[in-house]
Amino acid sequence: MMRTLLRILINHALNDDEFNQKILAQMNEEKVEGNKLFGDGMYEEALLKYDCAIQLAPEMSSSSEIRSICHNNRATCFFKLGKYEYTVKECNKALELNPTYMKSLFKRGEAYEKLENYDEAISDLKKILELDPSSYQAKRSIIRLEPLAAEKHEKMKEEMLGKLKDMGDSILGRFGMSVDNFKAVKDPNSGSYSISFQP
After folding, report:
1. Do 75 and 87 contact (CB within 8 A), yes or no?
2. Residue 69 lies in a domain
3. CATH number of the structural domain spanning residue 48
C-alpha cells in the first residue's frame, strides 16, 4: 500500500483531480480489504485496514464520505470485540463527517445500551426517527429502552437519597439524633413540605 502511494506521489505529473481520484481509489481498496477481513471475523485486522483508508486522505474534503464509512466500520469492529466505549468514539467521528448517517446513529445507540447509557441511546433513536419517521426498529427500541431508563433513574435516585440519609445521620448523630427523627409531610393544597421532629 505505501509503495503504491509513493508511486502515486512520484508520478505526480497528474493533475489534482486525477491525483484525488487515485487517492480515493486506494482508500476504497483498503476499505474493501477491511470488509473482507471483517466478513472473516478478523476484526483487529479489519480495524487496521479501515484506519489505513482514513489516513490516506485525512483532510481531503472529497474523502469525507469514505472516511465516515470507515469510522462506522471501525465502530462495528469495536462493537464485535465488546469495546463499546471505542464504538461510541468511532461513531462520533463518523457522525462529525456525516451527521445524518443512520447506521452510525444505530450503532452508537446499541453501544450506549450496552454501556447502560439508556438516555443517550434513546436520544440517538429519536434522531433516527426525525430522519426516518417510519423506522420500526427505532420505535421498537425506544419502547424497550424507556422502562430501563426509568428504572435506572429510580435506582440512581434511591442511591442518592441513601447517601444523603447517611450524610444526615453522620451529622445528626453527633447530637444523638438521626434523619429518622424527622418526618416530611406534603401539603396536598400547596405541594410544599413541612418537617416535624419526632423524638
Report:
1. yes
2. yes
3. 1.25.40.10
